[in-house]
Amino acid sequence: MAKQPAAVVGVGQTHHRAKREDVSMAGLCREAIDRALLDANLTLDEIDAIVVGKAPDLFEGVMMPELFLADALGAAGKPLLRVHTAGSVGGSTAIVASSLVQAGVHKRVLTVAFEKQSESNAMWALSVPLPFNMPVHAGAGGYFAPHVRSYIRRSEAPTHVGAIVAAKDRQNALKNPYAHLKNPDTTVESVLASQMLWDPIRYDETCPSSDGACALVIVDEDTAAASPNPAWIHGTVMRSEATTAAERDQVNPQASRDAAAVLWKQAGITNPIEEIDAAEIYVPFSWFEPMWLESLGFAEANGGGWRLTESGATAMDGRLPVNCSGGVLSSNPIGASGMLRFGEAALQVRGAAGEHQVDGARRALGHAYGGGSQFFAMWVVGSEKPSN
Amino acid sequence: MRDVAVVGFAQRQMEVFDGSPTCVELLVPLFAECYEQTGWTRRDIGFWCSGSSDYLAGRSFSFVSAVDAIGVIPPVNESHVEMDLAWAMYEAWLKIQTGEVDTALVYAFGKASASVLRRSLALQLDPYTMTPLWPDTVSLAGLQARAGIDAGVWDERAMAEVANRSLTDAEKNEYAIRKGGSSVEELLSRPVYADPLRKHDCSPVTDGAAAIVLAAGDQAREVRDRPAWIEGLAHNIDPISIGTRDLTRAPSAARAAAAVDLDGVELAELHAPFSHQELILRRELGLADDVRVNPSGGALTGNPMFSGGGIRIGEAASRIWSGEVGRAVAHATSGPALQQNLVCVLGSTTEGASN
Predict the structure, then answer these.
(1) What are the residues whose beta carbons fall under 8 Å from the beta carbon of B288, sequence distance 6 or more?
(2) Contact of A215 with A13, CB cutoff 8 Å
(3) In the list A10, A264, B288, B316, which could disulfide-bond A269, CB 3.0-4.6 Å?
(4) Are the beta carbons of B251 and A238 separated by less than 8 Å?
(5) Cα–Cα distance for residue pair A188/A179, rounded to 1 Å
(6) Which residues of chain B does A48 touch, with a Cβ-Cβ cutoff of 8 Å?
(7) Rounded Cα–Cα distance for residues B250 and B343 (Å)
(8) How far apart are CA B241 and CA A68, in angstroms?
(9) Which residue in B113, B100, B95, B117 sits closest to B26, CA to CA?
(10) pLDDT tops 60 at residue B353
(11) Is B66 in the same domain as B158?
(12) Which residues of B touch A82 (CB under 8 A)?
C-alpha cells in the first residue's frame, strides 16, 4: 500500500525569548497552536488527533507534561501521542503526525512541540553525571567541540568559517519576527572577537536557550484542496545510531548519510544542491552548517561544506539559502527547534515566509538531529503534490 | 488498511531489577527471545520504537542508552515515545500502515523501584495547581475508589472479587510478582492501605521490560500459524483535572472502545492498576459477563511502569497464538485515574480487517 498524500496547511510559532514569563506551558503551546489553526483556517473541533513533542521532561520538571496539558491543547476526547527522540524530537514529532495522515488513519492532525527552558537550566539538565557513561560536562558545547575540531582538521577549514555562519544566521534572524536573538551589529569580526567557550566554539557561535513552541497542521489530500498553498510532504526519514562506538564517525555519522540517501530517493531528488531551493538545517553551533552540508550531500565530504559556506552560497541570496529564519543559532527552544526547521521549510514552499522568503522556493529541506549526533529526522516539502 | 499482526512477545517482571535504570541488560535477552520466536535477526526489523520515562530513570535521555541494546550499527529506523509500550506499538503500527516498513520491534522498560513510585508519579500532575500538594497516585486512586463506593457503582466486595480472581490466576503466570488467591472474606479482613484501598487493590511496584514484534501480511504468516491480527487499535485521552472528571467513569476508554469492534471478544486483558479500575473498564468497554478478564492475573499481580500496558497486548496475543481464543481485546492506560486509554482488538483471522 502506498502512502496517502499529506500536506502542511498551517504553521504557527511563538515569539521565542529567553524567558516567556507572561505564559504558562499551556499558554506557550496555545500561542503556536492558535496561529497554526488560523493559518490552516481550521478550528480545534476539526482536528482528529494531536501529537506532542518535547525534549527531556527534566527541562520543565514535569513528568510527561502532555498529560496535564491535554485539556489546554484541545486533546481531551481525542487521541494524543507524545514523542521524545532527543534534539531531533521536533522533526520526529512532525513525522509521526504525518504518518497518521499518510497511513490513512486520520485526515486532520495537529502537532505541537515546545520547550520552556527557563523553567530549569537546560545546560545542567543535560549534564547529570551517569555511572559508566562518558560525562557531557558543561552542556552540549563541551560535547560537540571535539567533533568540530576534528572537522576543521580533516577538512583543513579556515577558522573563520564558523563566524561566517553565525553572522549570516543572526542577520537572517532580523527578518524573522519570531526569532529570539536580534543582534543587528553581529558581523564576522564581532563573532571572532567574542569569548571562546569550548575551543573552537565562541560565544556568538552558540545557540541561545529559549522558551518557545511550534505547531503544524498536517492534512490529507481532500482537506488540502481547500488550502491556497499547501506544503506537500515529499519524503520523511528517521535514523538512529549508537552514542559511543569505536567505529563511529561523529563528524559525518552514518545515520545522517543513510537518512539523507533515503530522503533524496523518496523525494525523487538526484542532485540536492540543484533541486532544493531552501534548507532549514539544525545548526546549534555554527560549524554544523558546513558539517551537515557535506553529510547531507549538498557538498563533497572533507571540505566541500566550508567552501560552500565561505563562498556565500548559503546566504539568503545564494545558491542554497540555509536557515533564512535565523535557525537554531537565533532561537532554540530545544524540543521545538526541529519542528521549527520543518515548519520554516514548509513556509518557504508555501511562499509564506515573509521577509525571509526565498523567491520562488518550490522544494525545501527540514532537518533535525539530536543526542550525540546520533538521531536524525528530515523531510522534504514541496509546493507541488508529489508524483511518487 | 494493511493486515498487521502481533507475532512476538517477551516480558520480564520483578520486584527489584538489580541493574541500571536504563534496563539495557534486561532488554538484550528480551530481544533474543523475540529473534528466537520469529527466526529473524535485528536486520529483519524494519522499524524500532520504545517507550519509557526519563523521570523513572532519574535522568535525561534514558532511552538513548536503551538503543545500545539493539546494536544500532549500522543505523536503524527508530523512534521513542514518552509513553507505555502500547503507544510505542501504535506508532510502529502506523509506520507499517504507511507502507514504509513491513516489520517492527517495539519495547519498553522501567525501573520503578529506583524511586518512591507513588511520589514520582505525582510529578505527572498539573505543576501549577496540583503537584505542589503532592497528591500521590495511590491516594488519587483511593479517592476514585471512594467516589465509586459513595455513588453505589461498586463496593469493597466487588473490588476484593477482582483482586481474588487476579491473584488466583497469577499462580499460573511465571512473571507475576504477587500471586496466591484466598477468599473475598479473607481479603476484606486485611487492613486498609489508602482507604478504601487495601494493598491487594493496588498494583505492586514492579521493575521490568517487555518487547512486542509486529509483522504485516505474509511475513506474519511465515512466523506463526495463528498470528494475532490487529483488527482494531484506538486510543483517547481525558483532561487530567481530578476535580472536574466523574471519577467513576473513563470517557476516553469508552471512546477508544467505540472506535473498534468488540463484538465476539472472548477474552480481555485490561490494564487496571487498581482493582476498582477493572470495574470501570469493563463498563466502559461494554464487556459481556462471559468475557474472561485478565487470565494473566493482570496489573494487580505485576505492573512494570511503561510496559504494563503493552504486556496486556502480549498476553492477549499469546492466547490467540495458542488457539485458546479466537478474538481478544487488550487495553492500556496512562496518567492518573485512567486518564488515557488504548484498546487493541486481536483476532485469529484477517476477516475483521483493521479499521
Answers:
(1) none
(2) yes
(3) A264
(4) no
(5) 20
(6) none
(7) 13
(8) 8
(9) B113
(10) no
(11) no
(12) 81-83, 87
pTM above 0.95, yes or no: yes
* Three cell numbers, residue A162: 564558523
**Whether B141 and B243 share a structural domain:** yes
Element (H, E) at A347: helix A334-349
Distance to chain B for A232, nearest Cα, Å:
16
Nearest to B167 by CA among B179, B158, B153, B155: B179
Amino acid residing at B229: W
Domains and CATH numbers, chain A: 6-119+210-224 (3.40.47.10)
Domain match, B59 and B191 both: no
What pLDDT, on a 0 to 100 scale, did the predictor assign at position B61? Answer: 81
Could you tell me which of B326, B320, B333, B242 has the C-alpha nearest to residue B284?
B333
Q: Are residues B262 and B197 in the same domain?
A: yes
Which is nearest to B264 in space by CA: B324, B327, B346, B347? B327
- Among B75, B126, B237, select the one facing A254 at the smallest CB separation: B75
Separation CA A84–CA B50 (nearest Å): 10
Closest CB from A75, A81, A371 relative to B91: A81
Cβ B124–A3 below 8 Å, yes or no?
no
* List of E strands, B91-191: 103-111
User: What digits encode the pLDDT tens for the residues B27-47?
Assistant: 999 999 999 999 999 999 999
For residue B215, what is its C-alpha cell? 509483522
Would B137 be classed as within a structural domain? yes
From chain A, pick out residues whose CB is under 8 angstroms from the CB of B59: 58, 128, 130
Same domain, yes or no: B26 and B148: no
Of the partner residues A59, A133, A241, the one whose CB lies closest to the CB of residue B75: A241
Domain count for chain B = 2
Domain around B178: 118-203+227-347
Cα of B259 to nearest chain A Cα, Å: 11
Closest CA to B157 of B194, B193, B198: B198
Does any domain span residue B109?
yes
Residue B352 lies in a domain: no
pLDDT digits (tens, 9 = 90+) for A153-212: 999 999 999 999 999 999 999 999 999 999 999 999 999 999 999 999 999 999 999 999
Search chain B and give the residue with CA nearest A129.
B59
Q: Please answer whether residues B105 and B95 qualify as being in contact, where contact means their C-beta atoms are separated by less than 8 angstroms.
A: no
A20 by DSSP, 3-state: which? coil
User: Rounded CA gap, B254 and B250, in Å?
Assistant: 7
CATH number at residue B76: 3.40.47.10
Kindly state whether A92 is in contact with chain B, defined as any CB-CB distance less than 8 angstroms. Answer: yes
Closest CB to B59 among A85, A86, A128? A128
